[in-house]
Amino acid sequence: MNVPSALKYTKEHEWLRVEGETAFVGITDFAQGELGDIVFLEIETVGETLAAEEVFGTVEAVKTVSDLFMPVSGEVLEVNPDLEDHPEYVNSDPYGKGWLIKVALKDASELDNLLNAEQYSALLEA
């Protein structure tokens, strides 16, 4: 299982990569593996400011549809434009080309509520 050490994680299997005042959000390698082949993403929250744990969109796989949750509070600045034509990037490269949204962080102290790689790996093993 790929769990990059530089990222933060949620118990709902989203990851977050902070770059200054913004962050990129996606779903983890574990989550994409559990969902199976991803065929469509619906994210219509660009321009909205959402609280941590609010739903920012859905991911549709061959067999299921799952909600996507905000790891931290912030404004959704952008949806990964490549995913419209290539939703499979979430499966093949969940931490790179498969990022979902870019967010303007509202409260950096919320990052302390997220899991580090070691804590997330322990959650997966439980």
List the helices and strands and how they pair.
Elements: E1 8-9, E2 14-19, E3 22-27, H1 29-35, E4 38-42, E5 49-50, E6 55-61, E7 65-69, E8 74-79, H2 89-92, E9 101-105, H3 117-125
Antiparallel strand pairs: 1-2, 2-3, 3-9, 4-6, 5-8, 6-7, 8-9
Could you explain the architecture of this structure?
- The structure is a single chain.
- This protein is α+β, with helices and mostly antiparallel strands and 126 residues long.
- It has one domain: Beta Barrel (OB fold (Dihydrolipoamide Acetyltransferase, E2P)), CATH 2.40.50.100.
- It is 16% helix and 35% strand.
- It contains three helices and nine strands.
- The strands form two sheets. It has a six-stranded antiparallel sheet.
- β1 and β2 form a beta hairpin.
- The relative contact order is 0.26.
- The model has no long low-confidence stretch (mean pLDDT 97).
According to CATH, the homologous superfamily is: RNA polymerase II/Efflux pump adaptor protein, barrel-sandwich hybrid domain
What's the overall average pLDDT, rounded? 97
**Largest beta-sheet details:** 6 strands, antiparallel
Task: Work out the helix count.
Answer: 3
N-C termini distance: 14 Å
CATH topology descriptor? OB fold (Dihydrolipoamide Acetyltransferase, E2P)
- The appropriate CATH architecture is Beta Barrel
- Approximate helicity band: 10-25%
Q: Which CATH class applies here?
A: Mainly Beta
Number of domains: 1
- The outline comes out as globular
Sequence of strands across the biggest β-sheet: 1-2-3-9-8-5
Compute the number of strand runs.
Answer: 9
